[in-house]
Design brief:
By secondary structure, the chain is α/β, with parallel strands linked by helices. 33% of the residues lie in helices and 21% in strands. The protein is built from eleven helices and 14 strands. Strands 1, 2, 3, 4, 5, 6, 7, 8, 9, 11, 13 and 14 form a twelve-stranded mixed beta sheet that branches. Strand 8, helix 9 and strand 9 form a beta-alpha-beta unit. Helix 6 crosses helix 11. It is globular, with a radius of gyration of 19 Å. The two termini are 14 Å apart.
Length: 366
């Protein structure tokens, strides 16, 4: 049995809905350039006013529900790194000013990781199993793998996967302390890259067994590995990342050479991009490559779902989305700098997170 992606919803600073963001990216638009109200080092891809992860997730999920009615026993798998931390920060600010806090225990409740999933479950009336993943940049890629496993095991009639992260002071300050914000904007795989740009948004994907509904794309395979090399720095030889790619392809029943497009992790930081480029040169030589983080920023826990969704939509439309900000590459990859109208069967979406956690997803044209 194959596993299908049958409906999708997307909310990014480039627009609400899959089509709005896809068309903007295909046209070379970028959301990187703004700054949240609290400031921060370097441009980011953010909404005009702060939004909670719960609100973003619900917007994306409702797009799915409007296209495909959800069964009450739909399983819900969500990936996020900061959940509704912005709510806890707001409560803290009110308290520091001597103002009454909106709700009791708001400090903690805003930061509980399962808050967005609980809000979705209540709003959509779902009664199936629920799980939240928080493994940095691989969070929602893991949620997609869990959904695929649940469908294959017959544990749910359908699964809703949501990746979401909203920017907050804690996140922006944390990455600022690491010194990885680009002062000018992320330039993935550029020889002069100088850091990442943070972003925010939400993606929702409905996962169903073959035959349930007309598929938009197939979720053909997925795999994860971990090298535990360093808290934030990738293992320099990239063997564990390569192992994830090869395992995902094996699960999909293809060879890495069959991959026709790679949606790369491509953060724009020197070490991450160098390691990833070396892995892709060995594993998928000749495949066109693009990182969307130059246009959408790094959406953290949402990245896996956002980027897989856009890769799946690219398969359906026969379009390879471009990466932005690349002027001079220091690798031998075939970088997509402008959208390419090209029918392709298999796309690979990869995410490499803090702690040496690696994920790879293989998507197939329906």
């Amino acid at each position: 049995m194959r596993v299908a992606i049958t409906a999708m919803g997307l909310v990014t600073p480039l627009g609400a809905g899959v089509d709005a963001t896809f068309q903007a990216l295909a046209g070379g638009a970028s959301a990187v350039g703004g700054r949240p109200p609290w400031g921060g080092v370097g441009p980011m891809a953010c909404f005009p006013s702060p939004r909670t992860s719960s609100a973003l997730a619900l917007d994306a999920a409702r797009q799915v529900a409007s296209a495909a009615p959800l069964h009450p026993d739909t399983a819900l798998f969500l990936g996020s790194t900061s959940a509704d931390m912005v709510v806890g920060e707001r409560a803290y600010g009110q308290d520091c000013l001597g103002q009454p806090v909106d709700e009791p225990l708001q400090y903690l409740w805003g930061q509980v990781l399962h808050r967005p999933a609980r809000a979705l479950r209540r709003a959509l009336g779902l009664q199936g199993q629920v799980a939240t993943f928080s493994t940095a940049c691989t969070s929602s890629a893991l949620a997609l793998m869990a959904a695929r496993d649940a469908i294959l095991a017959g544990q749910a009639p359908m699964a809703l996967v949501v990746g979401v992260d909203a920017l907050c002071r804690t996140t922006t300050s944390g990455f600022g302390a690491l010194g990885v914000h680009s002062p000018t904007g992320a330039r993935p795989f550029d020889a002069d890259r100088d850091g990442m740009s943070l972003g925010e948004g939400a993606a929702a994907l409905l996962i169903e067994p073959e035959g349930a509904r007309v598929p938009r794309a197939w979720l053909a395979g997925g795999a994860e590995t971990a090298d535990a090399h360093h808290l934030s720095t990738p293992h320099p030889d990239g063997v564990h990342a390569e192992a994830a790619i090869r395992a995902a392809c094996a699960q999909a029943g293809i060879a890495p050479d069959d991959i026709a497009y790679v949606s790369a992790h491509g953060t724009g930081t020197p070490l991450n991009d160098a390691t990833e480029a070396a892995v892709l040169e060995r594993c998928t030589p000749g495949a066109p490559v693009a990182s969307l983080k130059g246009a959408l920023g790094h959406t953290l826990g949402a990245a896996g779902a956002v980027e897989a969704l856009l890769a799946a939509e690219g398969l359906a439309r026969g379009v390879m989305l471009p990466g932005l900000g690349l002027r001079r590459a220091d690798d031998t990859l075939d970088h997509v700098r402008q959208a390419r109208d090209r029918a392709h069967r298999f796309a690979l979406s990869v995410n490499f997170a803090f702690g040496g956690h690696n994920t790879a997803l293989v998507l197939e044209r329906a």
